[in-house]
Design brief:
Strand 5 and strand 6 form a beta hairpin. The longest helix has 7 residues. Strands 6-5-8-9 form a 4-stranded antiparallel beta sheet, covered by helices on one side. A 3-stranded antiparallel beta sheet has the order 3-4-7, with no helix packed on it. The chain is about 10% helix and about 40% strand. The protein is mainly beta.
Amino acid sequence: YITGNGNEQAVPLTAQDLATLGNGTISVSVVKKDAAGNTSTTTSNTFALDTLAPSSPMLSLATGISDGATNAEAKSATGVVNLLSECGSNIAVVLSKTGVTSINKSFTSTGSNIAVVLSDSELTSLGTGEVTLSAIATDSSGNTSLSSLINFNVI
């Protein structure tokens, strides 16, 4: 029970409350009762509870990249790496190479493969050699996945 003060109030949930409720659609009902004992009609609402992290993004080399990517291949619509993650999640991608500044990219997952395409300036920054791509997904509830890694060569 919550004692009202005439203003909107948050109802805090403990870790145990969240565990008891579980993930999914949660229904909430409220009945107001005044000092005289009069009650209002019930007001109900629902919300989605999601405390589970998304799976790590699935990464695969784009077609023809297993022997290394030329600048033309890296800039093409198929890119260098394909990303696949929970639909609607934001995917943070970091491309790095020893001794080179990291390049950050972000994508919103559609539930289908997304091609990581590199620009001329990104290819210039990376230069030739082995590049590591790491990806982390964050779902719409703010839950974050573990990182996925894949390496490819720019030739």
